[in-house]
Write a structure and sequence with these properties.
- The chain has 173 residues and is mainly α.
- It has two domains: 1-103, no CATH class; 104-173.
- Helix content is 43%, strand content 9%.
- The protein has helices at 12-23, 26-31, 66-73, 105-118, 124-141, 146-153, 157-164; strands at 56-59, 62-65, 84-87, 100-103.
- The protein has a two-stranded antiparallel sheet.
- β1 (56-59) and β2 (62-65) form a beta hairpin.
- It is globular, with a radius of gyration of 16 Å.
- The protein binds zinc ion.
- Zinc ion (ZN) binds next to loops.
- Zinc ion binds at residues 42, 89, 91, 94, 96, 99.
Length: 173
């Protein structure tokens, strides 16, 4: 069962993610916090939310983005090169896996820009500050080695180290 799948094997973080989900039988616990509607409808998260409306699910001693768990439970764990869950519906509390996909940092940024333009309430510079906050939060949640995190996000390892230590991009928690 084990071994021999060197390059295609899930990363440690993916495996841990899936193991925890299986172990804790969190499937039911997760979906009990979701207003599951029709197949194509948005499925709003009913429990704890981050300030911008993204669902937060308590797992393994910390809050995780509900969108990430929804994708993982749907058999689609986070690939290391695409650490962002993107909404096709632009609706932050939605966790319908049909409306979610993994995106690279670049795709996430493009998505933000597109939405920033569409939403006149959010200025471009404001949008960028929010994006940084989200990245900081994700980096702090990321348990991979700092050098892997750095390459995922296209930043230097020293920046990751500062973020982890709470020294950089100060105002984000
Ligand atoms: Zn949706």
């Amino acid at each position: 069962m084990l071994g021999r799948r060197k390059s295609k094997a899930p990363t440690a973080i993916e495996r841990r993610h899936m193991d925890r989900i299986a172990q804790m039988g969190c499937d039911d616990r997760f979906w009990s916090k979701v207003d599951k509607r029709g197949h194509d409808d948005c499925w709003p998260w009913l429990s704890t939310k981050a300030p911008r409306g993204y669902g937060q699910f308590w797992l393994d001693g910390r809050y995780k983005p509900a969108t990430h768990i929804a994708l993982a439970l749907h058999g689609n764990p986070q690939p290391p090169e695409a650490p962002f869950a993107l909404h096709s519906c632009d609706n932050p509390p939605c966790v319908n896996p049909m409306h979610l996909r993994w995106g690279t940092p670049q795709e996430n940024m493009d998505d933000r820009k597109r939405r920033g333009r569409a939403n006149s309430c959010v200025g471009a510079s404001h949008g960028r500050a929010k994006l940084r906050e989200d990245v900081v939060r994700l980096i702090r949640l990321d348990t991979r080695p700092q050098k892997d995190i750095a390459s995922s996000y296209g930043i230097g390892q020293s920046a990751v180290s500062r973020i982890k230590a709470g020294k950089s991009w100060g105002h984000s928690r």
